[in-house]
Amino acid sequence: MIQNRSFSWVIFGFFAFATWGKVAPSQAQSASDLRSTVAQKYERLEGMAANFVQVANSEFMEGPERFSGSLLFSGPKYRIETSSQTIVTDGKTLWVYNRGEKQVIINDLNSDETSFSLTSFLRQFGAEYNTTLGPEEVRQGVKHRILNLEPKRGLSQFRSVQMSVRLSDTTITHLDIIDLNDVHMTIDLSDIKVNPKLAPESFVFVAPSGVEQIDLRN
Question: Which of 79, 49, 69, 71 shows the shortest CA–CA distance to 204?
Answer without folding.
Answer: 79
